[in-house]
Amino acid sequence: MPESTQQDNDHALYPHATDFEGRPPPPKEGYSWDQITAAIDSNSLHGLRRTDKGQWEYEVWQHQIDRAKYGNIGRYIALTVLHWPDLLDPAETTQTQSGSHANESALTLQERYRDIAPRLTLRLNHYPFPVQESIQYFVLWATRDISVEDERERLDRYLEEQFVGQRGAALEEGQGQQNERQPLSAELLPAKPGKKKEWIWFVNPVELRSVATVHHLHVFVRDVDV
């Protein structure tokens, strides 16, 4: 069957509102690591897309959200999926003092952003575009944009803790070596023997974001040789 006919049939079976014109369907085995990195490097993220069936399922799920109660999909995700108390950033709601004396002025918002961590939640993407079996596809949700340069050190440290483990693990009693680091992500598949985790991430441009009210990064993880 010609590819164009198959695409028409898929869209007829799974009608959705997203225009995939000029965006070829994903490979049957899912996007490879090289294809994802190429899309990131060439700024052609629009080329990465769900299948028609996957897009249809995502839109069906969206339509089931009570907009009168939650207002938008981002607030629904924050409150019911991520279990955040609200969409506010801790740095914007904490009036930290710059010292121990009560009469000292409060920290500026920029200083609070530096000192107070944002709310971060890493979850597997439940409605992803397809990737090869060797890749896990996560979404990192945040209460601020942690892709910017000022937040990059915090982001790198957080992802390392999730996929490798925390640095400076407690020393075993009577030994001079650190305990083996354990990843914090409960959804991360363990690295195979002789392997370690490698990850990449990107932030969608505004026009590709289906959840615009919550900051988030797309994160991909795989095993590589030690």
From TrEMBL:
Region (Disordered): 1-32
Biased segments, Basic and acidic residues type: 8-22
GO cellular-component term (any): cytoplasm
InterPro entries on file: DUF3605
Pfam families per record: DUF3605
UniProt record, GO biological process: N-acetylglucosamine metabolic process
Protein name: Uncharacterized protein
